[in-house]
Structure formats: C-alpha cells, structure tokens
Amino acid sequence: MPKRNIIWILAIIAAAVVVIWTTQHRSMPTPPAAAPVELRTVYHVRQLIKDRYAGDIDDRAVQQGAVRGMIESLDAASSYVSPDRMVGFRDHMRGLIRGFGLKLEHVDDGILVVAPLFGSPAHYAGILPGDRIVAVDGQPTAEMSFDSVYAKLNDPTRQSAELSVVRAYRPLKPIRLQRREFPIETVTGLSRDADDQWIYLIDEGSGIAYVRISEFVSETAQELQQAFRRLPETRAVVLDLRDNPGGLLPAAVAVTDLLLSEGPVVTVFSPNEGPKAYLARREGTTYPTMPVVVLINGQTASAAEIVAGALAANGRAVLIGELTLGKTSIQSMYPLPDGMGQVNITTARYVVGAVDPTEPPPGDAVGGAPGVQPHVVVPVAPELHRRLSRLRFVSALGPRILAAHLNGAAVSAPGAAPEPDLAEQISMDPQLSRAVRLLAEPGAVERILRQAAADSDPAVRGDE
Predict the structure, then answer these.
(1) Which fold has domain 187-458?
(2) pTM as predicted
C-alpha cells in the first residue's frame, strides 16, 4: 500500500477518535445546580454509568460500592456493613453468632480445623481440632483458596454446608451443618471441668484466679460478674486481655468499674459533642482491693486498651506482656435508609485515665497512638503465640479433647474425663506464668505499682 494512503487512513482514524471523544464530552450529563460541589463528580459518574454502560446495571450494587468506597477511604477502622451482614454484625455486638462455628487455619496440606466454637453447629456435629476439611459441598478445597473456603462457610445467606473431613488420615462420612444462632462466651477460664464449667481458680494455695475476656459485647460485664460469684475464696486475679480486639465502649467502662472503686476511666473527645469523661463508681465494685495483673500484647486493642490503661493509670493493676496496638479511635454505627445496610464511622478518640480535656488525643484511627506499655515486659515468639492461641480454642471444648491435644493423640473414647493439667498450661505460657509468680509473691504487685507512681510523678522525677 502506498505510504500516502497509509497516512490518510491514520488521519481518518485519528479524526474519528477525536470526533467520538468530542461528541461524548459535549453530551455528558451535568449535575443539577443544587448538587453540592463535592458530590458533582459522584453524580457525573452515576449518570455516565446509567447512560453509557453496555451491560445490565444493579443499582443497589452500584450504590453499595459507592458507599463502601467513601467510608473505607476515611481510615482503616471505618467500614461499610452490607445488608446481608448487618443482622449478624449487630447480633455479634449482643453476644450472639449466626453461622457454623468453625475456627480454621490454612496449612501446607489443606484447611485445618483449629477448633469448633463451643456450642456451635460444628461442635455438636462432632468436628474436632486437627480435622482437615477436604471438600465443601463436593468442591475440593485443594482447588480453592483459603479466602474462598472462608467466604463460602461464612456467607450469611448460606443455610447449610456439607463438609468432607479427614481425621488422622482417615476420611469420615460427610458432615452436614445447619447454620444457626449460638451465644458467644466472652469471659472464660483456663480450662473446663468434666461438667463443662470453666475453671477459674488456677492456684488454690495462693488463691489466684484466671479470667480471660476475648472481646467486649453488651453482656461481657454481666458474664464477668457471674464468673466472680464462683470465686468466693479468690485472693488475686489474672485478667487476660491478649488478642482482644475491643468492642463496645460501655462494656469496657462497666468491666473497669467492677475492679476500680473510683477514678477516671477514659475521656472521649468528639468534634461534635466535646470531651466526655467516664468515671468509676464506688457502688458496684466487686473487688476494690484485690491484687490484679492484666496480660496484654500487640493485638490488645481499642476497648481492651481502655480497660488495661485505666487500671494501670489508677494504680489498680500491674500490666504484663507487650506493648498494645494503640487504637485510640471510637466508631459509631449508623443505619442507612432503604435497607442499604449500615456504616461504622470514626466519630471520636479517647485518652485513658486523667487527662487535660483541652488537649486533643494523639494518634490516628488505628495504630497511630503509642499504645499501652506493660510494667513488666515479657515477649512471646510468634510461633508460641500461635500455639497458645490454638490452645485457648481447644481448652473450651472440655478436658478430654484438651488432654488429647496436649499429648498429640486421638481423642479418647467416652468415659471419665481426665482432669486438666493446669500446671502444664501455665508453664507453656511465659506471660501467664510470670503473672502467677508475681501474684504469689507477697507485696510484689504493690511494690511495682508504687514504683510506677513514683516514676510518673514530676515532683519525684525532679521535673519542673
């Protein structure tokens, strides 16, 4: 083809492109004059999709995507909850779970069951820690990513699932689970007894109790009170807040109030409402003077940091473990109209203990603040941390399953349940064992708290 013809063809193509672009530009929809300036681009894109998109349009999906994008652009703590997950989210805040109740982990040879949650469909179906899930509804998990398996089993619209399970290298009959609601245990002990009751007293000689709070929901303070009622002979308490992601602010304040007779708990700073201080009240305090040690780590966050920080700031508890996450933001939940779900938006920040209400709180929404420092630093290696996390889930299933897990053996046949070896569980955990030794030593907690108070007193330090 002659070069002159090629040039003409390219010129025609270029002209066509310019004409098409120009035509589209001139016919673009314009937002109404009343639209706020910051929403004109959003309106423009919405109209562009409606006028020019070549496929079918799901208006609700487009709106949800737009809302999700706006909210998630704010910070890592703000979120959009879709309508199909909204009920489950709110139930969770009330201490209920809807689902199958499986704690899973991705390992080299497939999908490992860390443990079924106590009282869940998976628990009652007989699924055990260490089981391998090799198929879900006939689809091999080897052909699926872990995220796909997790999403499939946590889909709120899914009412049942058939699992193909391998136990000790032997396939079991297919197990069908029916999705249902079951309660969350946010307050637990170290192990269960043969009657499935939590064991809180872990050192009878010293009267030391162990109580773990996994998260803060509306019923957590009441659960803690019920646990305390079973401990009339307790002389000291280990409060485990490790790996606690937080939860409801009122629940955190109520738990702190059970252990603190008076003093500032937290001050919340809101740009719309100004500072608001929450104080402990003398009435209702369960153990106002009993020595307390709180366990914390890098996954202790938000409401859990409020409890740990307030108890430490008021000289009420010694903190053992590692620096906490440093999440100083508070999110508020707002339902959307037309059944479009809800948004959780960062609306305030907090500072624990006594603060100057005129000073704004430091830090970003997640991890921007310095976190809560322990009085006694006891690090835990990542692999040991994973092992201890698994052990906590397994211990909830009863002494027989726990004993088998600790011994690396199959679950024993029905019969008398073995007594849990509390000493072994404590010795495996360097932070817990350090707390027990500290509480068993007369005056040790008080000595650390006196030193911490002296270190924070400007007059003692010689500050001007």
Answers:
(1) 2-enoyl-CoA Hydratase; Chain A, domain 1 (3.90.226)
(2) 0.86
